[in-house]
Automatic annotation (TrEMBL):
<dbReference type="GO" id="GO:0050136">
    <property type="term" value="F:NADH dehydrogenase (quinone) (non-electrogenic) activity"/>
</dbReference>
<keyword id="KW-1278">Translocase</keyword>
<comment type="similarity">
    <text>Belongs to the complex I subunit 3 family.</text>
</comment>
<dbReference type="GO" id="GO:0008137">
    <property type="term" value="F:NADH dehydrogenase (ubiquinone) activity"/>
</dbReference>
<dbReference type="GO" id="GO:0005886">
    <property type="term" value="C:plasma membrane"/>
</dbReference>
<dbReference type="InterPro" id="IPR038430">
    <property type="entry name" value="NDAH_ubi_oxred_su3_sf"/>
</dbReference>
<feature type="transmembrane region" description="Helical">
    <location>
        <begin position="90"/>
        <end position="112"/>
    </location>
</feature>
<dbReference type="Pfam" id="PF00507">
    <property type="entry name" value="Oxidored_q4"/>
</dbReference>
<keyword id="KW-0874">Quinone</keyword>
<keyword id="KW-1133">Transmembrane helix</keyword>
<keyword id="KW-0472">Membrane</keyword>
<dbReference type="GO" id="GO:0048038">
    <property type="term" value="F:quinone binding"/>
</dbReference>
<dbReference type="GO" id="GO:0030964">
    <property type="term" value="C:NADH dehydrogenase complex"/>
</dbReference>
<protein>
    <recommendedName>
        <fullName>NADH-quinone oxidoreductase subunit A</fullName>
        <ecNumber>7.1.1.-</ecNumber>
    </recommendedName>
</protein>
<keyword id="KW-0813">Transport</keyword>
<keyword id="KW-0812">Transmembrane</keyword>
<keyword id="KW-0830">Ubiquinone</keyword>
Amino acid sequence: MSTELILASVIFVAIGLILVSVFALSKFVGPNNENSKIKNTVYESGVSNPVGTTNIRFSVKFYLVAISFLLFDVEIIFMFPWAINILELGYYGLFKMFIFMGLLFAGLIYIYKKKALSWD
C-alpha cells in the first residue's frame, strides 16, 4: 500500500471522528429545550400567527414563468462566448447565432400564443 493512501485514509477517519465527537459534545453541552412552547410555534416571514392552512395549491402559472425565465436566461450563457469570439467566427458564426436566436424567438412566440405569460 502506498503512503499517500494510508495518509488519506487516516485523514478521512480523523475527520469522521472529529465530526461525530463535535455533534455528540453539542448534544450534551448545548441547551436542551425540547418541550418549549415558543420553540414549537410556527414562525413564517415575521408572522407569528399565520392565517389559513399550509395546504394551499399554487397556480401552474408560477412554474411556467419560472421555466420560461430559465429557458431564456440560459441563452445568455451561449451568447456571451459568441459575443467575445465574433470576429474569429466570422459570417458563419453570425449565421449560426441568427438561427439560434430565431429558434428562441419562435419559442417566445409559442409561449405568447399559449398565453403562458398572461395572468388571469
